[in-house]
TrEMBL record:
SMART domains the UniProt entry points to: DEXDc, HELICc
GO molecular function annotation: ATP binding; hydrolase activity; nucleic acid binding; RNA helicase activity
SUPFAM superfamilies with a match to the protein in the record: P-loop containing nucleoside triphosphate hydrolases
Record-annotated DEAD-box RNA helicase Q domain positions: 1-29
Keywords: ATP-binding, Helicase, Hydrolase, Nucleotide-binding
Record family assignment: Belongs to the DEAD box helicase family.
Domain Helicase C-terminal, chain residue ranges per copy: 217-382
Name listed for the protein in its UniProt record: DEAD/DEAH box helicase
A GO cellular-component term linked to this record: cytosol
Amino acid sequence: MPFSKLGLSEPILNAVTELGYTAPTPIQAEAIPLALKGKNLIAAAQTGSGKTATFVLPILEMLSKGETQKKKRARALILTPTRELALQVCKSIEAYGKHLALKSIAIYGGVDYEPQKQALIDGVDIVVATPGRLRDLYTQRAIHFDEIEILVLDEADRMLDMGFIEDITKIIDTLPEQRQNLLFSATLSRQVRELAKDTVANAIQLSFNKEGEGKPNIDQWLITVDKDKKSALLSHLINENNWQQALIFIETKHGAGKLVSQLEKRGIESECIHSGRTQAIREKILADFKAGNIKYLISTGVSARGIDIDVLPLVINYDLPFPADEYVHRIGRTGRAGASGEAISLVSRDDFKNLCMIERRLGHLITRKAIEGFEPSKEVPISVLNFEPKNKPVRGSNDEKSSAPSGKSKRESSSSRTKPNFESRSKKSDTSSNRSSKSSDSKKLPPNPWNV
Ligand code: AMP
């Protein structure tokens, strides 16, 4: 189906054509006509599926048709988990709305309140915001929600993971009851469904996380290695492979800084972003990475949320994240827009419990490759795919929590910190037919991870 059949008007169609989009992605083809009819939607869709345009295009279409009663007040509100994503969504609004006179603003924490307040006084049509700062501004009466017609919850699962549930529900309580609601989430977990039940009544549910259509094609593999050999292994891989660009995920901000110096000692230039760096520096580094001026970017999970590069060829997990969905999010940074991508994880014995959860989530083992000279002394067992943990694994880092806007750390720190209780196959089973550690043939496994 061409864009022209979706019900969008000329200025929007022209903007989309100028961006080089030839046809809507599957989620756009299905959801945009429904959104234009005013339906409430709950969509399971990954980053990279074209979900941003799925909600931005109908918002632009609908807002370009009317005018607020009390001019200058926002008519659409988009909640996002991080400031990087808020800025990214705002950029998309500018691009798709370049032939329209609608104004948008990104509102997020960690920066001065005044410019945001002034922009709200000057008047905006679309507010894209992280929940904490938005709630602060509402409490200060700097923003009014009485003209909001459309609410979007973008990456709802991430917002819940980051502990924003209270801010979200408080904000929603203050919105006009008569409004359209669009919820997007990589996964429709129980918590997301509960949020949806309370906020998105009579919604049409759409899922785009099936095998095949429009999903990224990512070649995933892992290398088992001792924890203290990871930086040497990474340097070795970088030197051997001469990678054009890689995004390297790490759990802690301290670890990110340390890795930059370790790579530097081996003659490899890299940069890092994490919650300890100022917003201005993070934005500059991201822009340099996108422009290709930085080859290796080390990032904690949340700091990388706004990274949106169509041709990013490689993602490296220096540590394995928890929860498992975070792994899926991370590797979803590559293999976008039809391109193929590669995701490599460096897995030490400490990562084993997270590996179990990830492989269980994927429904298959990740291909293992051995790198000569880096064989681990502490072997990483093969995980059990139908394994049920008695307790949740411990999340590796506080960095994601501290990087949430507006001091959310107290609320977020209530997550489970009980000791993990994992089972594994016996070491003997490492030589079983299930084991793929000596194999370099990743084609034996499904081509992408969205087959759960
Ligand atoms: P998203 O899932 O919204 O993060 O979008 C992922 C990437 O796909 C972004 O870089 C968009 O610019 C791009 N994109 C979105 N829709 C289309 C489309 N219909 N055709 C080509 N690229 C698209």
